[in-house]
Amino acid sequence: MDSTKDGANRREFLYLTAGAMAAVGAGTSVWPLVDSMNPAADTLAMASTEVDISKIEAGQTIMAVWRGKPVFIHRRPMNEVTEIRTEDWKTLRDPQSDEDRVQKGHDEWLVLVGVCTHLGCIPMGSKMGQPKGDFGGWFCPCHGSHYDKSGRIRKGPAPKNLAVPAYTFVTDTLLRIG
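RE: above sequence
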């Protein structure tokens, strides 16, 4: 009787050991696949970027790069903010108020991903002398999309407004995008 009970205990031990080894083997073989789905180190490095905005004057736009895309940072004079907020935005193709496109308390700062929502071109209007389109914002000459001073599509084939990336003000002079 002891030998039968002893054999059953050995069998259970072998089953448990074999199962545990199979689980470890499966985990070891699946881990590289799961790990390969994580973003690469160079991608994580570009996850956010910080921009010194202390030298940007009212009416000036600079371009930064975030995740390989251009980002327009425009310091708007208060008369421009007042003007854009008096316009009827509810009838636009992609209706969005100016207040929803800027952070509360930082109305003078407009931060936009500078990629046309039609075919991915970079709209003009961020540098002196470039055409700003019919609405004084940005103009994509490739297919004629016109954006207003809040980055909203007003004319042309683009279906959406210029995107607003996630951003925070680290200090009054430092902006973190991403």
